[in-house]
Design brief:
With 270 residues, the protein is an alpha/beta fold. 45% of the residues lie in helices and 17% in strands. The strands form three sheets. Strands 4-3-1-2-11-12 form a six-stranded parallel β-sheet, sandwiched between helices. Strand 9, helix 10 and strand 10 form a beta-alpha-beta unit.
């Protein structure tokens, strides 16, 4: 009864690791579109086409429920997919929902008017495409008032992580945090709005300082998915096996995935 986890590359492995620990009896199909990563510099039409192709491939593996563990895909493609493309018997969910729930301390199904929340100054670190979509700010505005969001487009970070150059990735993260602080010197909270970024979470935390509450998506998504499956048990598809698929070179992707998760991961060609 497999559930799909989709990402533009390796970043979604942070979500996979968390949900697999939270739901050890659920087999997951992971799809990494490594041949086309990063999505964060692509236009919305390109992201939509690539995302729908990947999701269809996971449906073929028996995943009736697919999680877009890619903020760019969630921001640029998900709403259109839900409105015009996804058939009634399937579900595709994004990763903004748990972040909004955590930040505003309210459930997604709570449709009461926007209200003031404790956090007033939020730093959002995301890909250029996610930042330009303003999807996070739009969803937040439905639920909270008086929150100042300063977004920082973190160009180059995903590329460096995908290439395994963590020294460069660290340097870029620190540079982007410095740039954010010039615009918002004292953020109260920081959103790591890309599933690649938890791989650099310690660097973000160190650069931001101890007074900034950092929201990282993996554990939030895991809890949200567990709750969703409790409420919608039929959305576990017919797939029975854990599978790792990639549009990239399976040997290269397997090696880097093993390095990131510190356990053996074997990808097959999608």
């Amino acid at each position: 009864m497999a559930v799909g986890i989709f990402d533009s590359g390796l970043g979604g492995l942070t979500v996979l690791d968390a949900v697999a620990k939270r739901l050890p009896d659920v087999p997951f199909v992971y799809f990494g579109d490594n041949a086309h990563t990063p999505y964060g510099v692509r236009d919305a039409e390109d992201v939509y086409a690539l995302t729908t192709a990947g999701v269809e491939r996971m449906w073929d593996e028996g995943c009736d429920l697919v999680i877009l563990a890619c903020n760019t895909a969630s921001a640029a493609a998900l709403r259109r997919m839900q409105e015009v493309w996804i058939p009634p018997e399937k579900r595709v969910l994004g990763v903004f929902v748990p972040l909004i729930e955590a930040l505003t301390e309210r459930q997604w199904g709570d449709n009461s008017p926007p209200r003031e929340v404790a956090v007033k100054h939020v730093a959002l670190f995301a890909t250029p495409a996610t930042v330009s979509s303003r999807a996070f700010q739009r969803e937040l505005a439905f639920r909270a008032i008086g929150v100042d969001v300063e977004a920082q487009a973190c160009g180059g970070v995903v590329d460096a992580i995908e290439e395994g150059d963590l020294i460069l990735a660290e340097a870029l993260v620190r540079s982007h945090v410095d740039a954010l602080k010039r615009k918002m010197p004292v953020p109260e909270a920081a959103i790591l709005g890309c599933t690649h970024y938890p791989l650099m979470e310690d660097v973000f935390r160190d650069a931001l300082g101890p007074d900034v509450q950092v929201y990282s998506q993996a554990s939030l998504v895991a809890e949200s998915l567990a709750d969703y499956l409790d409420r919608h048990p039929k959305m576990r598809g017919p797939g029975e096996e854990a599978v790792f698929l990639t549009t990239g070179d399976p040997r290269v992707v397997s090696r880097r995935a093993t390095q990131f998760l510190r356990r053996k991961i074997e990808f097959a060609a999608a």
